[in-house]
Amino acid sequence: MSTKLIVGLDGSESGERALTYAKHLSKLIGDCQIELVYVIEWSPYSFQTAEENAMRHKRREQEIKLASERVITPALEVMKTEGFAAGGRVLHGDAAELLNSVAIKEKAQQIIVARSTESGLAAKLFGSVTAKLVMSASVPVTVVN
Amino acid sequence: MHIKKIISCVFIALCFSSTSVLAEEGGIDQTVNEVFAAATGWFVNLIFAPLPGTTFPWIVLWLVTGATVFTVYFGFIQFKAIRHSISLVKGDYSDPDDAGEVSHFQALATALSGTVGLGNIAGVAVAVSIGGPGATFWMILAGLMGMASKFTECTLGVKYRNEYADGTVSGGPMYYISKGFKEKGLPGGGILAVLFSIFCILGALGGGNMFQANQAHAQISSIVGDYPGWITGVIFALIVFAVIVGGIKSIANVTEKVVPFMGILYVLASLVIILMNIDKVGWAFGQIFEGAFTGLGVAGGFVGALIQGFKRAAFSNEAGVGSAAIAHSAVRTKEPITEGFVSLLEPFIDTVVICTMTALVIIITGQLTTDPTTGLYLVGESGRIITADGSSGVALTSAAFGSALSWFPYVLAVAVVLFAFSTMISWSYYGLKAWTYLFGEGKTTELVFKVIFCLFVIIGAAANLGPVIDFSDASIFAMAVVNIIGLYFLMSLVKVDLKSYLSRLKSGEIKKFKN
């Protein structure tokens, strides 16, 4: 059975660093599959207007399409030409929870993310995605600097 | 289709003639009132007409009968299903693959922000000051029964909504009446749907807009001093315009976040006051029960208490009116009935919890004066119970909270303004959906309604248009007349879905995703 690595992407340069490290690890492991995950932060308990609700399905489709086109598909194409076995998905929800649940579902050995770009008050108040993931994940997590 | 267009054109003509009259206001409020009252008085009188030989408005009986019929027909679903409703709102049955779609919680919160508002604060004060503490009992009962009406209308709202190719949705009574009647081979669905839409537009411009702007101005001027209403109107209209036309989501987002917080703060403050007077709670409930059946000296006796309780509950939670069906229809679910389960929590939260809190605070803080020798309430010439400081409406609720927490009236003033604003935003959507049902979907058609809506904000805040407000209230209740007729004919469709859903839930075919 091949080893599975989950990589959290956010479309930023730090996500690229996580992916580079995952590729490096994949070469060392040999029989390895990389699963790219892009999470659109979303809560079922947020408050919206009636009009936003009516548009929600359309917006969701647009958000998934945009993230796939801009982040997941280009990354997968590059990985394909480089000879990596890879898959990708775009999900809505809490990033830390979803990366962990995908890892469990895919029976992955490791989650790789980059250090959070959040800083200052927001990070202090709410804690970063990375910190939450490290504290709650059921599989080993590598945080790339 | 021809009938739809003819009726719609007559409506446009009426609408423009009334706005042209209204446009001339400014120092001629009196004339506007007279002209409007003469043109619409018959309609208001018809809707609020008492039953022969009584003072009981037939429309209140209509709503209560509807709620009772749905309660019995669905086997007291509101009591049996409440735990399942809470599970659905928590997301226990939500498929993780549907993440990012409108959740049950969001649909409930959106619908609640349209109903929680002045009805809970001012309406309850009116109910207890006219009907006495006993009105609270009937209000709670009407709230509990109304849960079945919401269940029926919101299930149908999702079941018969229109889904467009671009992924957006439109739903509500106009859609389920026209489609459901066609499906059952019944005549008249088209006409009823058009009638509903017309009443909905009028209700949106009146009760959902002018009344709110008017009350918000009254509240602001009571704190900062008197100033011309058009100033509040223009400011409100600009903000509403920025949200509904400009699509400035940040304002709506702020409101949608602050309003629930205000609602929670209101309930917490009520609980604090109730706890501070815990020794009086038993007495207060005694007054509520005794008043419900004797009236305790209020005008009209126990019937007076009953009318006020039922009327204010209906004003507050809008069960049977059909507005919530429009709000709930945005949820994407494979099971329309789940939205019915979720929506039945609305009258519970709005009326059974929040309205009761207001009533308890007014009663236990001793705002209603009694005759020490007889123990009966002292009723003034206006037919209202004489209050401690002579206030009524929002001011009475404010005085009740202020007597225990001196700073709370300021919070309440902010809450009233925010509630009014969020109600306007909600009703702008309900009105828009009715408008697009009549005139078709499209950017220009929508813009016309949105601009009219903003103009009515200014008119509502600027003028003291009693008859206009009576007319808009009558329109909201007229929505209920059409909607409940539709529900009677379509409730058998809901029952089929309910039976199927409950049996699949029992067999485990419908799975929980969270434990």
From TrEMBL, chain A:
InterPro entries, per this entry?
Rossmann-like_a/b/a_fold, Universal_stress_UspA, UspA
Q: Where is the UspA domain?
A: 1-144
- Which residue spans adopt a coiled-coil conformation according to this UniProt entry? none
- List the protein's name: Universal stress protein
For this protein, the record's Gene3D superfamilies field holds: HUPs
Q: Which CDD domains match?
A: USP-like
A UniProt-annotated Pfam family: Usp
- SUPFAM superfamilies attached here? Adenine nucleotide alpha hydrolases-like
Organism of origin: Amphritea opalescens
**Assigned protein family:** Belongs to the universal stress protein A family.
Automatic annotation (TrEMBL), chain B:
Query: In the record, which residues are listed under signal peptide?
Result: 1-23
Gene Ontology cellular component terms for the protein in this record: plasma membrane
Q: Record keywords: Cell cycle included?
A: no
Membrane topology is:
Multi-pass membrane protein
Show the Pfam families listed in the entry: Na_Ala_symp
Listed InterPro entries? Na/Ala_symport
Q: Which residues are listed as membrane-spanning?
A: 56-76, 186-207, 227-246, 258-278, 284-307, 348-368, 407-427, 447-469, 475-494
Query: Which domain of life does the UniProt lineage start with?
Result: Bacteria
GO MF annotation: an example: amino acid:sodium symporter activity
Q: Which keywords are on file for this protein? A: Cell inner membrane, Cell membrane, Membrane, Signal, Symport, Transmembrane, Transmembrane helix, Transport
Q: Where in the cell is it found?
A: Cell inner membrane; Cell membrane
Sequence similarity:
Belongs to the alanine or glycine:cation symporter (AGCS) (TC 2.A.25) family.
Q: What is this protein called?
A: Alanine:cation symporter family protein
Organism per entry: Amphritea opalescens
